[in-house]
Specification:
Strand content: under 5%
Radius of gyration: 35 Å
Number of helices: 18
Oligomer: single chain
Shape: elongated
Distance between the termini: 98 Å
């Protein structure tokens, strides 16, 4: 009988000891839950301190040290402390301890009994890396920021900010493959700035010298955001680089057939011809043969004239369309400048040819004047509009007005 009583007493002692050990673990859990409910209030700090004291005791005891709950709580508590510490030298050890504990907790928690606590801890780790990444990015440490944001993204792979920040920092650190991967992913998510991502992704492809995918990306963007002037302009620019201006014009013409009152489409058609003419200028600079140079000049003027026709159609729909007024003034005045400069290069014995060339240039300057004035009137703070108007005054030798416009330009805020 005495033996039985003794055994019963020993069992009771073991149960009490185990209960005491688990009591610290339970206390850590309840105090952390209390902290979560009190977060942001003066009382929260005391609960977090109590939770840490208890979890340290539970982690030090061989009976509870290896339990999944112990690791999960330690990870959640220490990651919380890491987020509250703004000094890297002291916060990083807390982060590392939390990271290791959460990794172990996930490994041991085969029944997912502590899933919520582990998720809370991992969200804390993500927040830590986000804060760290923002500071690194702000300091121009783009490669470090990329790694921080990428850590954040691995925890929250569908979070649009996580994916965007990772892609942005990758692009700025010249890690183009990572930037492409993240921007491409972002296009599959509901992101508020999807339109700009098409533009950014096409830019990264261009930096990677991949014009095929750059054009493909921006074309997809135009299909989804047909009224985006930036995407349309980029599509035109890349198409010209790749010799596909005809395809762009065909696409715009088809769109106009379906929507003939769309002023923006006429503007884009004009812009395509304008850009084609601008590209010829580079060829002219490289060409030495006078005959070839003259042919290029004729082609350039032809494209400027076609551009003017398209801009005029846009202005028939909306006479106050600033961009159309600005550009038509430019494409009319540009050939006038060429004629004016060519006339002034003629030798002194070519007076008749000089007079003809100057008269032609003057007529073109005057044709451009209404549009130049209108553009400057619509946007008196546009440096492009004012510069074009000043060019007109210089071309017709109206120095007084040219000086007046220069003063307006000088008074504009520096870009």
């Amino acid at each position: 009988m005495k033996i039985k009583l003794l055994m019963a007493g020993l069992l009771g002692l073991v149960s009490a000891t185990t209960f005491a050990q688990k009591g610290e673990l339970n206390n850590a859990k309840s105090e952390y839950e209390k902290y979560e409910s009190l977060r942001g209030t003066p009382l929260a700090k005391a609960s977090l301190t109590a939770a840490r004291t208890s979890i340290d005791k539970a982690a030090a005891n061989e009976k509870t040290a290896a339990l999944p709950l112990t690791y999960a709580l330690k990870g959640a508590i220490y990651s919380t402390y890491a987020n509250q510490d703004s000094v890297a030298a002291t916060s990083l050890p807390l982060f590392t301890t939390a990271e290791e504990a959460l990794k172990k907790a996930k490994e041991l928690d085969t029944k997912a009994e502590n899933k919520q606590i582990i998720e809370t801890g991992n969200l804390n780790l993500a927040q830590y890396q986000l804060t760290k990444g923002v500071a690194e990015y702000g300091s121009g440490k783009y490669e470090l920021a990329y790694h921080s944001f990428d850590y954040y993204r691995t925890i929250l792979p569908e979070d649009t900010n996580a994916v965007y920040y990772t892609g942005l920092s990758a692009a700025n650190s010249n890690n183009y493959p990572a930037a492409i991967t993240n921007y491409t992913k972002l296009l599959t998510l509901k992101f508020s700035k999807t339109q700009s991502i098409y533009l950014d992704l096409s830019s990264v492809y261009l930096l990677s010298k991949d014009t095929t995918n750059a054009l493909k990306t921006v074309t997809e963007g135009v299909a989804k955001f047909p009224n985006s002037s930036e995407l349309r302009k980029r599509e035109i620019e890349i198409s010209l680089q790749t010799g596909k201006e005809k395809e762009v014009l065909d696409k715009i013409q088809k769109a106009l057939a379906a929507d003939p009152k769309n002023k923006t489409l006429y503007y884009y058609a004009g812009l395509t011809y304008s850009q084609t003419a601008e590209a010829i200028i580079k060829e002219q600079a490289k060409t030495k043969d006078p005959i070839a140079k003259n042919k290029l000049q004729a082609t350039k003027v032809e494209n400027y004239n076609k551009a003017a026709e398209m801009y005029k159609k846009a202005l028939e729909i909306d006479p106050n369309y600033f961009e159309a007024n600005l550009n038509i003034g430019y494409v009319i005045i540009n050939p006038a400048i060429d004629d004016y400069n060519a006339a002034n290069k003629l030798p002194a014995n070519k007076q008749k040819e000089y007079d003809v060339a100057i008269a032609k240039a003057k007529a073109q300057f005057e044709a451009a004047k209404p549009y130049l004035l209108k553009a400057a009137d619509l946007n008196p703070k546009s440096i492009d509009a004012l510069t074009n108007l000043r060019t007109y005054y210089l071309g017709v030798k109206d120095d007084a007005n040219a000086n007046k416009i220069k003063a307006q330009i000088d008074a504009l805020p520096k870009q």
